[in-house]
Design goal:
The structure is a homodimer of 255-residue chains. By secondary structure, chain A is α/β, with parallel strands linked by helices. Chain A has nine helices and 14 strands. Chain A has two domains: 107 residues, ornithine cyclodeaminase, domain 1 (2-Layer Sandwich); 127 residues, Rossmann fold. Chain A is globular, with a radius of gyration of 19 Å. Chains A and B meet through strand 3, strand 4, strand 5, strand 6 and strand 7 of A and strand 3, strand 4, strand 5, strand 6 and strand 7 of B.
Chain lengths: 255, 255
């Protein structure tokens, strides 16, 4: 029995965003047609200022693979005090025919790619086909991943971006324009940014009602990424009243 | 950041049963004094004739280590059809200060050693100090591990063993006598074996009431290993009526 070991660089060299989008699309179909067993995830919270580590499991009957992903996040002192990222991930793959461990790989890049791809799949399936502009509330790593993914499924003419920190916003603009050649407008306010959106992407830490209902134009497609656990919020509840709400796992979205 | 990789042979060369017993004793103390966070384990059942794979987590504050063990079992066709054991295991260790993955190691040997050590810790703490004879109902790998562990905490004068399969029983006798120099009596019946016991070790698949209450002498210390999940049974319920019952995690033993 052999186990394949892949570091982050290996993973990056083996997979493209286009493939991840196709795979995420297939995975949603498999999950929603009952071909995937996905137990609730388990979480260990560390004492502050440390964050948490999650363990997520899935068994896909179609390819007879069991996967386990550990994923940590919210360790602000990691880069300065320990020289490692504030969040890390590891993925194990098992051959479900025998439960032999067939692969151990870095999970941080795949996590970012997958979440980006999820946004793109939603745009492909649900956004208006004449959508041209994206508004990005939040300009960190996942905000970039969303653009990297969504540009695979539509032509983005412009991005209106907003961030608490002007320097972070300016870096986002420079990076996106250099990497993808898409013009980025640094918005003067969240409201200014949101009012321009055909597609609104939120990738913040979800610390409150960032987007007000009045700012959102009818027909806007919202990709709400930051609100990934109980207690986080990005959208004013009023937005949900008239929205068509689509999610991946209802069980993980309700209490 | 470096991650240590250890296969089964590496693990075997790095740790002794004596160390495992001491560590398991410390772990029980830490767990029962609230220094360990141990979420409920998660299990994925595969379609028959395949078995299951469990994922178990723990965070120990004392040494700032988070561990995850995957452990599969009950794949009867693995050895003949796929050339791998019927059960396998993998352990990940994370530095809880950063959640960096610091070690990936084989978990099958450690699982066997740990379970053996748990029996030995119970003997050390609870068995009569003049105990001399052990009865072993079941003669597989874990039956051997129990002897390997218990001999570290007492002098075993004789073992009375019983198994459904005479050949398996004979192999157990030969192995134990060669490896540990302890005489093994192949019992004619379960009752004959149990009636000789100062310490009774059961390591079967837990398919029913194997041991009757009338056979057990007062003061017998019972190490019940086989009944590790809901639906399994080794002891007649009447045995529990007059027994002092000690377990590691009450939450995992009751519904």
């Amino acid at each position: 029995m052999k186990t394949l070991l892949l570091n982050k660089e290996d993973v990056g060299g083996l997979i493209s965003m286009k493939e991840v989008i196709g795979t995420v699309e297939e995975a949603y179909k498999a999950f929603n047609s009952g071909q995937v067993i996905q137990p609730p995830y388990t979480c260990i919270h560390l004492p502050p200022p440390r964050g948490e580590i999650d363990f997520k499991l899935g068994y896909c009957e179609a390819n007879e693979i069991i996967s386990m992903k550990s994923s940590s996040g919210g360790f602000p002192n990691n880069p300065t005090e320990h020289g490692v990222p504030s969040g890390m991930g590891t993925i194990l793959l098992f051959d479900a025919r025998t439960c032999a461990l067939i692969c151990v790989m870095d999970g941080s890049l795949l996590t970012g790619l997958r979440t980006g791809a999820a946004g793109a799949v939603s745009v492909k399936a649900l956004a208006r086909t004449n959508a041209k502009t994206i508004t990005s509330i939040g300009t960190g790593n996942q905000a970039r991943m969303q653009i990297r993914a969504i540009r695979e499924v539509m032509t983005i003419e412009a991005i209106h971006a907003w961030d608490h920190h002007p320097q972070t916003l300016a870096r986002y603009k420079a990076d996106i324009e250099r990497e993808f050649g898409i013009p980025v407008v640094m918005a003067r306010s969240k409201q200014d940014a949101v009012e321009q959106a055909d597609i609104l992407v939120t990738t913040t830490r979800g610390k409150g009602s960032l987007v007000e209902a009045d700012w959102v134009r009818p027909g806007t497609h919202i990709v709400a990424i930051g609100t990934d656990t109980q207690g986080k919020q990005e959208l004013e509840p009023e937005i949900f009243r008239n929205a068509k709400i689509v999610n991946d796992s209802i069980a993980q979205c309700v209490e």
